[in-house]
Amino acid sequence: ALRDEFDDTESESVTPAPDQKYCIIAVGMFRDRENVERLVQRIFEEGFEPVTNARGNLTQVTIQVAYEDQTDIDRALEVIKEKFEPNALVIKK
After folding, report:
1. CA pair distance 70, 18, nearest whole angstrom
2. Burial status of residue 80 (CB atoms within 10 A of its CB: 0-12, 13-18, 19 or more)
3. CA-CA 20 to 30 A from 34: which of 4, 13, 58, 91?
């Protein structure tokens, strides 16, 4: 059963721990506001947490991901590369 894979972990809690760690994965830089809004909507619809940052006349789109260890980051990055941007990269953890 799929559930058995997770029985040995303690990451099943519903409420995030106060010391929850987050990483930021960069997805793209855009000049066109509509492109930013479209991507942010797609990210949200896929269940991720989009974050935008103004960088001069460009807007950087990133995804904030909660993690316990490097394996969580690697998994999230793989999914994000597949769904949104093959060149996505972790810029902060």
Report:
1. 19
2. buried
3. 91
pLDDT of residue 18: 73
**Could you tell me if 66 and 20 are in contact, meaning their C-beta atoms sit under 8 angstroms apart?**
yes
3 state SS of 28? strand
User: Could you give the CA distance from residue 63 to residue 81 in angstroms, rounded to a whole number?
Assistant: 11
Distance of CA 20 to the CA centre of its chain: 14
The β-bridge partners of 21 are 67
Strands of the sheet with 89-92, listed across from one edge? 49-55, 58-67, 21-30, 89-92
Residues 18-58 pLDDT 10s = 789 999 999 999 999 999 999 999 999 999 999 999 999 99
Instruction: State if pTM tops 0.85.
Output: no
